Amino acid sequence: MIDLFDKHHHTIERHSRMLQMGSDVVGLASTQMLSPTRAIIDGRETVLAGTNNYMGITFEEDCIAAGKKALDEFGTGTTGSRIANGTYGLHRELEQELAGFLGRKHCIVFTTGYQANLGMMAGLAGPKDTIFLDADSHSSIYDGCTLSGANLVRFRHNNATDLEKRLARHDPESGGRLVVLEGIYSMVGDRAPLADFVEVKKRQGFQLLVDEAHSFGVLGPNGRGLADEAGLESDVDFIVGTFSKSVGAIGGFGAGDHPQFDAIRYSSRPYMFTASPSPSSAATSIAAVRKLKAEPERRARLADNSKRLFDGFHALGLETCCDTVSPVIAVKCPDELAAIVMWNALLKAGVYVNIAVPPAAPNNLCLLRCSVSAAHTHDDIDLIIKLFGEVVASGAVAVSA
Amino acid sequence: MTADSKEIFAKLSELLAPFNSKNIELKPDTEISTDLNIDSVSVMDFVMEVEDHFDIDIPLNVLADTHTMTDMVKVVEQRLAQGGSS
Fold it and tell me: Of A165, A187, A137, A208, which Cα lies nearest the Cα of B60?
């Protein structure tokens, strides 16, 4: 009999090698959360620079109060799917709040961000349709595409010309065409060149979805994301987002203006066959979305902090993956071994960042990925720069010319 | 193998070389992902090189049943016969 775990032996060996070099890269536990930017890890107070907590919104008094109130009034869980007993007034209220924030006619809330992409891809596309997806798309997009049963055509990252070439080879009469982009790509921090893609859309014809997971709350004059920043919202048919970053909860959403948008509720398995978000998570999300609207200074602080870290890294001579400032700032490492050594050294020195190695990081890159928060102080940012200077720029990592 | 499929096999071997870091010998029954131990994204990147070289689309859903070099040769032949469209 073949042991089902035999196929995992390469991964298991890779993980064992990591463990021999220090802390468990993929199994770290924060035993206490002191603030949006501080935790106790391995018994030490650690500055968090890899949480995606862009708005620093996880410890806001009014959000916590809303969550506690929902726990008291609605209980700990909904015990049901949105299409059965799992839709509470809170879920409807959250959908309306988001639709208002986004300036969209319709919004559907999913239980996680991952499921939002699964649910939107599977709800929008079917076996006769074709999804054209950016090569660097998040796994949830790939998985959603697979679930949809559609033909999947992958185009070169951020390359509208490459997309157009593939669209031109496709017969538009054979089925619907959905193009999927991301506002900010999670590992590297670059944005989709939306204007270029919109030009292709006008020439070739397709429906366009932008996953704003890392750009919702972050980009644009209204914090609606990349489409808002680019002034191209009316050219984007569907928006996907998550509550696990700028909203500081868990859950996700899809939004759009299509008159039949709600059909997704009755045709998307990741919406129908899972329990709805817990009442407390829905309630803190409502409070947080209101806060994003009421406190644009959070976005300004995040932009300021991001620029400070970006400039600091460049002053050290570190090579970042992206030339544009964004809250995701990834520093290139020479290889996986060096990345693990430096990640451990940073953690011991008191700063947590993400480590990203292939295939999670694109183009065989090995990255120390920072995500900046509006809750970081200038002192926090300066400490992160100082520690990167001591650990990373001191010689082990490639220094750009 | 026909002359055409031999030519495709040779071209695929050439395009696969940058991903085959351990220089494992490529035979018709070599399993691209498991035998060469290359990850899912690298397989897709290799396929993109194949698409560009032959000017065809190979939808990712087709890849689910494509494991060996021979499977890949067949996919390229089929897509070429269809005029390269998806």
Answer: A137
Nearest to B57 among A150, A169, A364 (CB): A169
| B60/A359 touch (CB, cutoff 8 Å), yes or no | no
Is the ipTM here above 0.85?
A: yes
- Do A351 and A332 have their domain in common? yes
In sequence order, what are the residues at sequence separation of 6 or more whose Cβ sits closer than 8 angstroms to the Cβ of residue B74?
none
The pLDDT tens digits of the residues spanning A73-97 come to 999 999 999 999 999 999 999 999 9
Per domain, the residue ranges of chain B are 3-81
Residue-wise pLDDT for A213-230, tens only, equals 999 999 999 999 999 999
Superfamily covering domain B3-81? ACP-like (1.10.1200.10)
> Chain A residues with CB inside 8 Å of B86's CB?
130, 151, 153, 166, 169-170
Out of B42, B48, B61, whose CB is closest to A359?
A: B42
pLDDT at B82 over 90: no
For tokens 């997009």, the residue is A141
Closest CA to A54 of A323, A285, A376: A376
